[in-house]
Design brief:
single chain, mainly alpha, 22% helix, 0% strand, elongated
């Protein structure tokens, strides 16, 4: 979360259909840099 932007993921339809056909699962962790008080 830098500059007000947040992370995102997008899967296109072809990828979703392929994942469905092979019975895939997704385990996705998004780590964002937390705002830290630098004492300024």
């Amino acid at each position: 979360m830098e500059g007000g932007q947040t992370p995102s993921l997008v899967f296109d339809l072809e990828t979703i259909q392929f994942a469905h056909r092979i019975r895939a699962e997704f385990d996705i962790d998004l780590y964002a840099n937390p705002y830290q008080d630098e004492g300024y």
